[in-house]
Write a structure and sequence with these properties.
Radius of gyration: 18 Å
Largest sheet: 8 strands, parallel, barrel
Helix content: 40-55%
Number of strands: 8
Number of helices: 12
Number of domains: 1
Distance between the termini: 29 Å
Order of helices and strands: HHHEHEHEHEHEHEHEHEHH
Length: 303
């Protein structure tokens, strides 16, 4: 209920105006590594020194003009070049709507191919984020198509709150691939998504188990320490080698927990977003935890 309320308010013009005006000073900077690639690379260096790998994400979505999609594509080419030249330990993550999916599927396809080709040349990796359920099918289809050309350099996100994710996982896992498992952060109808947190959590653990059973490299992306404990029990029970999975968290959330996992010898990675188009991302972070909304409200009152 809280998540649905916040996501609904986030679409309100008056609310968005206030958050966009004060958000970065009042809390968004906790979750966003600045508005430039330079600032994101510096954050990446700092995290690398602490034993943490990084996934960089240039924030943006719902691009509706070809020119904007081309600019977004070029920003990712620049990111991959910068990662290579600075030798930071990082890869990239992108949204197909930022690559022009709302303009045409073909535009998103061609932009994704160009980026995957660059990742191959740079010996890097690109993760396709999963967005709201209206684009799930086309996202899965484009990933499956382009993965065949760049199997070592392309991965996908699956969301445990969608009913369909187990079927998608089974369909996509022959041969094994690279998946990031998340709970999901969009407002979805009960016709496509579990309304209960308990069901989402149980499906999350099951997706991780099935992904590992199927031989996929699995990025376990959660801040829920109870879920992490359940997943570790699965990993130990199945005797999964440590080079078949990693733990991931978002920038600004529970870094000490991730650092502890790294000290215990697990691969750990932080998802580091940056850019000027941070509003929608920040609203989803607020929706995930009431404490994030209280943090913003206190900062705004004290301004």
């Amino acid at each position: 209920m809280f998540r649905e309320m916040v996501l609904g308010l986030g679409n309100n013009r008056a609310v968005s105006s206030v958050v966009k005006r004060y958000g970065m000073q009042m809390g968004a900077a906790r979750f966003v590594a600045g508005d430039s690639l330079t600032s994101a690379i510096q954050v990446t260096r700092d995290l690398n020194r602490r034993g943490i790998l990084v996934t960089l994400d240039h924030l943006g979505e719902a691009v509706r003009e070809e020119r904007a999609a081309t600019q977004a594509r070029d920003s990712y080419l620049a990111m991959l070049d910068q990662i290579a030249s600075t030798q930071v330990k990082a890869n990239v993550s992108l949204k197909l709507t930022m690559m022009g999916l709302a303009v045409s599927e073909e535009l998103a396809r061609q932009n994704l191919i160009v980026i995957a080709q660059k990742a191959q040349e740079a010996k890097s990796f690109v993760r396709i984020d999963m967005e709201d359920s209206s684009v799930t099918s086309v996202t899965v289809a484009l990933f499956q198509e382009i993965w065949r050309q760049y199997p070592a350099h392309l991965g996908l996100v699956l969301q445990s709150y969608l009913y369909r994710s187990q079927d998608d996982l089974k369909q996509l896992s022959d041969p094994p691939k690279n998946f990031r498992i998340v709970k999901g952060a969009y407002q979805e109808p009960v016709s496509v998504a579990f309304p209960s947190k308990t069901d989402v959590d149980d499906n999350y653990v099951e997706l991780v188990k099935q992904s590992l059973d199927l031989g996929n490299y699995t990025a376990i992306a959660t801040h829920d320490e109870a879920i992490i404990g359940r997943v570790l029990k699965v990993i130990h029970h199945l005797d999964v080698p440590r080079d078949q999975f990693e733990f991931q968290m978002l920038y600004g959330v529970k870094l000490p927990v991730l650092e502890q996992l790294a000290r215990e010898g697990y691969t750990a990675r932080v998802y580091v977003p940056f850019g000027q188009d941070w509003y929608a991302y920040y609203v989803r972070r607020i929706a995930e935890r009431p404490a994030n909304l209280l943090f913003f409200a206190r900062a705004l009152i004290n301004r």
